[in-house]
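Objective 1b. Sequence-to-structure analysis of 4-hydroxy-tetrahydrodipicolinate synthase.
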Amino acid sequence: MFSGSIVALVTPMDNYGEIDYTSLRNLVNFHVDAGTNAIVSVGTTGESATVTVEEHIKIVLKTLEFADGRIQIIAGTGGNATHEAITFSKMFAGSGIAGCLSVVPYYNKPSQEGLYQHFKAISESSELPQILYNVPSRTVTDMSPETVALLSEFKNIVGIKDATGDLERVRIHREFCGEDFILLSGDDLTGIEFIARGGDGIISVSNNIAAVQMAKMVKLAMSGELDEARSINEKLVPLHKDLFVEANPIPVKWALHEMGLIVNGTLRLPLTTLNIALQPTVRQALLDAGIL
């Protein structure tokens, strides 16, 4: 259902911080041409925390429109309030999106029982396929493999994006959740090894920049051609690292502007544009990857 090279797409904005739908259309076309397998619209990288509810819905639906059936669209629908996540899932019912990516609730630090009840309520409110998203570096709370296993019993909870970087979890999740449960890496640095251990693909920040390379690399890895995949990845390692010299998506939006793919690197406050002292670092990573 969901596999391969998936991009956690940025939300482009104009000089005034308004959504730049022309650049969004260009980005969708860029990924179709590059061979990206799916787009996550308005996830963390898409600044879900700072766009309005109305903007969130419109961005997803415009991305779907621009895709025009050429590439799967997964909507970011998470929230730290269960009712909000449920509302987003319901809003996209019948829209044509392929599924939802729902992040572990952030800031309020729920227990494992709270996480179970949160995702259970979302599952029972929607028929859309749901992908869990565990990223404790951003949410503080780490969803345990045992909780994931319990949630995998719900028919429409089909997989997890695991951004812990803990490769042992591939084996554990596969053992606990079964062969059909979709395992996607959310950590670019360990993504290839995640696939080598039995994962189904990567939801990637680097894919915004290196879409062609990521698509080729992931395809090779998934077909067992790991030496060739690792060779491509070796050139991308500086990019995987340096796109996080400041909080995501600050560096990746700056890089996309450098590449001419978006009008500028504008973000919504409290995020600001990439520190001038760090710009040479990201530029060098782009050069090392053969992108600039």
